[in-house]
Amino acid sequence: MIPTLRKRPTQKEVAERAGVSQGVVSQVLNNRTGAIRVTPETRERVMQAMQEMGYVPNIAARSLVGGQTHIMGVFTYEPVFPTDTRNFFYPILEGIEEGAADLNYDLLLHTRSTGSGRRVYQERSSRLSLADGTLILGELGEPRRREEITRLIGEGHPVVFLGRRDLPGHTLSWVAADYAQATEDAVGVFRDHGHRKLLYLGGTRNHESASDREAGFRQAQRLAGREPQVERVNPESITSAEVRRHLDAGVTGLLIENDELAVAWLAACREVGVDAPGDHSFAVLGDPISAAPRPRPWAALELPRREMGREAVRVLASRLVGGPDETLRLACRWVPGDTLGPAPSGDVR
Hints:
Elements (H helix, E strand, L loop, with lengths): L10 H8 L3 H8 L10 H14 L5 H6 L6 E6 L13 H13 L3 E4 L3 E2 L2 E2 L2 E2 L2 E2 L6 E5 L5 H12 L4 E4 L11 E4 L1 H14 L5 E5 L5 H16 L6 E3 L7 H9 L4 E4 L2 H14 L8 E4 L14 E4 L2 H16 L6 E4 L2 E3 L14
Parallel strand pairs: 1-2, 1-7, 7-8, 8-9, 9-15, 10-11, 10-12, 12-13, 13-14
Antiparallel strand pairs: 3-4, 5-6, 14-16
């Protein structure tokens, strides 16, 4: 026999049980004063009726009458939320959870997808509006995503991005790793090891964090009186011939944008029998994006991902009580590794 689902009690039924109007129940429920005077005795009678009937208020409905749900949404265009502790976003989500708990907010993970991937708007409306405001992870990338976010912001929904984001014509709130300063500092570490001719090796995708890394490299080289040498390539473009070309031209140190490029560089180095730090040195400018372990403990930047999550919650909470848009860059940590050593002797270029 299929059990009959119990019907959820309504405000009207609670009012009938307590012997008051539905307006009184609403006033008690939302804990506010109004045109109806509610005595302490009446309030207690309404609360008792709610308890006896198992009445649970509809949080979303309460938000429609001017209140807040005290819920923060978390949204990403990535196909799934990370469950592997090695995933790039995992420490960020931990920081978000900690920050939300400290400020007494609940979290709503938006995981619904369509055949064309995850979207903000489905059937002409935004499900992100179920929360008071939303934290957005990951790159915006393609134009469709930027159009959706532009529309969302235009509708007045408070948003804070994890990572620096640019949308022309809009002032945004974001919390990001300070890639530019960290890369500039990394160049200083290479120079302390005697390296003078450096190469920045970046990917072909144009996004804000990549631009910040490159800007930091260019700034450091100009301050040192050196011409910045920058190349943007696909991993498959890194061949043994390319390795040989750079090393023969006197490059002794590389600052590599991400793990994928570093793995391709190492594979090409093996083909021509060179390695770091014997023949040259390199460092990777960030944490791994995927959950795959690194092939070796190379020199790298470590991003303050957990702190980014906590600070993003703080910024959004401030926005929800009328605070201004805010941008924040957090310092990265330099991690020494086995791919950085002294420049080869004779490097006086």
